[in-house]
Amino acid sequence: MHPRTTTPSATSDVLVVGGGVIGLVTAWRAAQRGLSVAVVDPAPGGGAAQVAAGMLAAVTELHYGEQTLLGINLESARRYPAFAAELAEASGRDLGYRACGTLAVALDADDRAHLRELHALQRRSGLESEWLSGRECRRLEPMLAPGVRGGLRVDGDHQIDPRRLAAALLVACERAGVVFHRAWAERLSVVRERARGIVLADGTGLDAGQTVLAAGSLSGRLAGVPDDVLPPVRPVKGQVLRLTVPKPYAPFLSRTVRAVVRGSHVYLVPRENGELVVGATSEELGWDTTVTAGGVYELLRDAHELVPGITELPLTETRAGLRPGSPDNAPLLGPTRLDGLQLATGHYRNGVLLTPLTGDVMAHALTTGELPDEALAFTPRRFADASLVSPTQSLTEQPV
Asked: Is the domain of 314 the same as that of 187?
């Protein structure tokens, strides 16, 4: 089923700019609250989710200085089982949600010391993780390299297939009555110091009571947004590989495995359908989405050190995408200083993980005008004086 495209000049309660998983979950939840909702995106269901691995890794993704972000990551992870079940029923689609757990391992003494520090931080933060010896790691995952020195078993870090998630949200939005305008947003309409909707690339105006900017890494490029409101979101390139475990899908890996190899993070995410996702690079290269030989080589090299047998698998896909980074690696959610404009962007590496919570937060903000308590720290107003990108570009300018 494909979302319908309407003739322009429509008026809606909520107009969402961006049809990735964040924009779609915002639209779906708002429509469930009884609001009339439209989405502007030339290819809804696309975006960073097409490249993401789908790790729901609130615990193993913990970084120093991000304890506030940890709170909403954990809360969103807690909501995921019910969210996935509701979305699967609403869309009739399988999301590839797996409660399979994660194993973070160390390959040398330095990595082992770092992992020990992470374990201590996790325990101080009240998180559940179990330290394993190298032998215990290999007992859980026999394909691991003999040199594995130790690891952390985190049964609460799960996974989902982001492509299936996006497809399911697209169908759920359609069934909830969301209208799709398959076009580029040219600029924000501002009338008497209030956001009033969007002007499309062909000059058509779309009016709305509230506009939500949820365009991922493109969110900082929409013309017409005042300088002090423009979100400080930048693109962070990530290259990802997909391999296939030949049928009948021997148990190559039973859970997500991740490590730091020579200072670079690498992860392997096994899908139930035999696909194995390997990622991801993190590159500050602007709008470049080129898949490079160096990026592919580094991922395969590091993955091979972790799981030597990986080089025997067919390489079926190489992709590069852009994560929406923010100055503090945390999302910008809810009302801005411009009346009528709200943000749902800047999720960086946690977009898929934060999908359930973002939908709930934005639905609350769109119906009440305020953020719920769990999201107060992520108001866009914390960056009111920051402007990291030029407001003169528009979303019609596609990154190269």
From this structure: no
Residue span of the structural domain in which 2 resides: 1-100+157-233+326-400
Q: Of 276, 294, 325, which one is at a domain's C-terminal end?
A: 325
SS3 (DSSP) at 78: helix
DSSP letter string over 11-39?
Answer: EEEEEEE--SHHHHHHHHHHHHTT--EEE
Residues 241 and 378 in one domain: no
Chain segment 177-195, per-residue pLDDT in tens:
999 999 999 999 999 999 9
* Same domain? 150 vs 269: yes
CA 70/CA 61 separation, integer angstroms: 9
One domain, residues 16 and 111: no
Distance between CA 174 and CA 155 in Å, rounded? 35
Q: Work out whether strand 185-190 and strand 102-106 pair parallel, antiparallel, or are unpaired.
A: unpaired
Which tokens hold the place of 25? 């979950």
Confidence class for position 391, pLDDT limits 50, 70, 90: very low
- On the 0-12 / 13-18 / 19+ scale of CB atoms within 10 A, 185 is buried
- Report the C-alpha dihedral over residues 87, 91, 94, 99, rounded to 10 degrees: 0
CATH code, 385: 3.50.50.60
Please give the structure tokens belonging to residue 24.
Answer: 């779609």
Q: Please state whether the predicted TM-score (pTM) of the whole model is above 0.85.
A: yes
DSSP H helices, 257-386, are 293-306, 355-368
Sign of the torsion formed by the C-alpha atoms of 164, 367, 9 and 183: negative
- Distinct helix (H) and strand (E) counts, the chain: 7, 18
